[in-house]
Write a structure and sequence with these properties.
There is one protein chain. By secondary structure, the chain is α/β, with parallel strands linked by helices. Strands 1, 4, 7, 8, 10, 13, 14 and 15 form an 8-stranded mixed sheet that branches. Strands 2-3 form a two-stranded antiparallel ribbon. It has a single domain, classed as Alpha-Beta Complex (Spore Coat Polysaccharide Biosynthesis Protein SpsA, Chain A). A hairpin with a 5-residue loop joins β5 and β6. It is built from 9 helices and 16 strands.
């Protein structure tokens, strides 16, 4: 199963602190948060990634083009015709497709642009700036059991995000704008989508979380998977600090690899 990751946004609140990198390339624990997300999916045997690039996408392409060198111990012997010896390396079982989805394309438009790489299959999708310990096997099982076009992971982090309304069976009934803290649920990413989702996506101006989500919820064609565990988005340097602290204290719930 393929995993689509949205990695095209600028991350203006991170950039305001002087970090010009695209947000998915901002490091926590010495590795881009994008790497952490991919390692988490890989733990569940999901190793075929489609990365939706945009703002400074060349940085993401260069990172993966040199990934083997970045993760290896190497000796360069310039006295022997620039001989290079690789002593040890850490290889990932990954297939990574990097797609330029436009500088200013919205979330739905980015997904629309990678339709041909999905090959008409069920796929997973998430944002390139959040980590979690969501059980991906349980998420996929719920999706398959409920015959919806999309299943989203819902969490309860507090009151600075837009809220989801759904009934006791998990069927999404609508969305609300940001509200005072009331224990509401939000979309945390970590979604499963059927290829029918592309019928709801139009062009580069399409924002997944607005009209497509609203239409799907009105059709009772969305499911919410309730996650009560850990989730953290990296919107600001303060959020980055929280994630760094969890890693330093060896208390990072998303770090399920050795």
């Amino acid at each position: 199963m393929k995993v689509v990751i949205l990695a095209g946004g600028q991350g203006t609140r991170i950039a305001e602190s002087g970090d010009p990198r695209p947000k998915p390339m901002v490091e926590i624990g010495g590795q881009p948060i994008l790497w952490h997300i991919m390692k988490y999916y890989s733990h569940y045997g999901l190793n075929d990634f489609i990365i939706c690039c945009g703002y400074m996408g060349y940085m993401i392409k260069e990172y993966f083009s040199n990934y083997y060198l970045h993760r290896s111990d190497i000796t360069f012997d310039f006295s022997q015709d620039n001989k290079m010896t690789v002593h040890s390396n850490i290889a990932e079982p990954w297939k990574v497709t990097l797609v330029d989805t436009g500088q200013n394309t919205m979330t739905g438009g980015r997904i629309k642009r990678v339709e041909k790489y999905v090959n008409g299959e069920t796929f997973m999708m998430t944002y390139g700036d959040g980590v979690s310990d969501v059980n991906l096997n349980d998420l996929l099982e719920q999706h398959r059991n409920n015959n919806k076009t999309i299943t989203i992971t819902a969490v309860q982090p507090g009151g600075r995000y837009g809220l989801i309304d759904f009934d006791d069976r998990g069927e999404v009934r609508g969305f609300r704008e940001k509200a005072v803290e009331d224990g509401g649920w939000i979309n945390a990413g970590f979604m499963v989508m059927e290829p029918k989702i592309f019928d709801y996506l139009t062009d580069d101006t399409c924002t997944l979380e607005f009209k497509p989500f609203e239409q799907l919820s009105n059709e009772n064609n969305m499911q919410a998977y309730r996650h009560y565990g850990y989730w953290q988005a990296m919107d600001t340097q303060r959020d980055r600090g929280f994630l760094e602290q969890r890693l330093e204290e060896n208390d990072a719930p998303w770090k399920v690899w050795d």
